[in-house]
Amino acid sequence: MTALWCSSHIERDHDLVEFDCGVRDLDVWLRSMAFRADRQDTARTYVWTTPGSAVVWAYYSIAPTTVQRAGVPRSASGGHTAIPSYLLAKLALDRSLHGRGLGTELLLDALQRIAAAVTVSGGRLVVVDPVDQAARGFYLHHGFTAITGSERLFVRAASLNAVFARNA
């Protein structure tokens, strides 16, 4: 991550008011659901701010999940019918920052947090449910693979180092 951005757990003093990623559902979720998900231990949200500022320019949310084996290759499922995984539930960058390659940096920030969690707690997959075709293309470009018969995409947790190397 560049020194321009501070990545931290969302706090009540973060300024969410002006955040606009261009996808209304993601903007609304940040303002109305991120703190609730955190309080209920269903997801953790991390935000990007600039040093000395509370204004949020980007965010992502991570949640533990279980993925059913249907459509997941055996090499990724490890033979499990319920695969312990992490859901990259939200990933959004303010529209004013689009087109600068910062989406990739934000994704790598999220995947580094997930990799650290995998080291501590285990987990075989990272999954995403892209909000649209542009997001789908973004994740496919970064090494995610489609789960057969689903819109959901995945990358093996054991492959995260390859994702980091490809984007270094």
Structural features, described:
With 168 residues, this protein is an alpha+beta fold. The protein is globular. It is built from 6 helices and 7 strands; from the N terminus they run E-H-H-E-E-H-E-H-E-H-E-E-H. The protein has a 7-stranded mixed β-sheet. The mean pLDDT is 94.
Strand and helix layout:
Blueprint: E1 6-9, H1 24-32, H2 34-39, E2 44-49, E3 58-68, H3 74-77, E4 82-93, H4 102-121, E5 125-128, H5 133-141, E6 145-146, E7 153-156, H6 160-166
Parallel strand pairs: 4-5
Antiparallel strand pairs: 1-2, 2-3, 3-4, 5-7, 6-7
Based on secondary structure, the structural category is alpha+beta
- Percent of sequence in beta strands: 25-35%
Q: Give, in spatial order, the strands making up the sheet with the most strands.
A: 1-2-3-4-5-7-6
Radius of gyration: 16 Å
Main sheet record: 7 strands, mixed
Q: Shape, please?
A: globular
**Extended strand count:** 7
Uncertain residue ranges? none
Q: With helices defined by DSSP (H or I, 4 residues minimum), what is the helix count?
A: 6
Task: For the record, give the distance between the C-alpha atoms at the N and C termini, rounded to a whole number.
Answer: 10 Å
User: On the 0-100 scale, what is the average pLDDT?
Assistant: 94
Helices and strands, in order, run as EHHEEHEHEHEEH
Q: Residue share in helices?
A: 25-40%
